[in-house]
Amino acid sequence: MSAVPRFEKPGKAAKPSGRFRRMLDRLSSSQEDLESEELQEDAQASGCTRISECADRQIVKVTGTLRTVTLRPRAGVPALEAELFDGTAPLDVVWLGRRSIAGIEPGRKLIASGRIAMSHGRRVLFNPTYELRPLGKE
């Protein structure tokens, strides 16, 4: 028998092949990596754009988990800011003129859509339309 290397099909990521190998990879991965992978799978399953693929001035529909929610005034007007993370990149979501919104809290999953803007090198979504994901799915 000769040792002939097996080549993967182009365009496909190399995935662990056996059940034991997958279990070993999950055990050796950090919790953050596992959560990030789960968020990416959720975004793909819901048909949303990955945040890392969003370009300036593009109209998008994204999903992820809110990491932080803060009240930060902008030009004297109250603004509720949240950081949405989908496993690929963070996105700042800003609701102008709002001090709070029921259900918008850290750890909550949501789908947001609107036009992406770039501010200080970060992606921002101002006053998006949004849909809170059911708590039972988290």
Commentary on this structure:
By secondary structure, the chain is an alpha+beta fold. It is about 20% helix and about 35% strand. The chain is built from 2 helices and 6 strands. The protein has helices at about 20-30, 30-45; strands spanning about 60-70, 80-85, 90-95, 110-120, 120-125, 130. The chain has a 5-stranded mixed β-barrel. Strand 2 and strand 3 form a beta hairpin. The longest helix is centred in the first third of the chain and has 15 residues, at about 30-45. The radius of gyration is 19 Å and the shape is elongated. The N and C termini lie far apart (about 50 Å). The model is unreliable at about 5-10 (pLDDT under 50).
Alpha-beta classification = alpha+beta
Largest sheet: 5 strands, mixed, barrel
Largest sheet, spatial ordering of strands: 1-2-3-5-4
Unreliable stretches: 4-12
Helices and strands, in N-to-C order?
Answer: HHEEEEEE
- Average pLDDT value? 83
Determine Rg (CA atoms, Å). 19 Å
Cα-to-Cα separation, first versus last residue: 50 Å
Indicate the proportion of strand residues.
25-35%
Strands, count: 6
Number of DSSP helical runs:
2
Global geometry: elongated
Helix content: 10-25%
Topology:
Layout (H helix, E strand, L loop, with lengths): L18 H10 L2 H15 L13 E13 L7 E7 L4 E7 L12 E11 L2 E5 L2 E4 L6
Parallel strand pairs: 3-5
Antiparallel strand pairs: 1-2, 1-4, 2-3, 4-5, 4-6
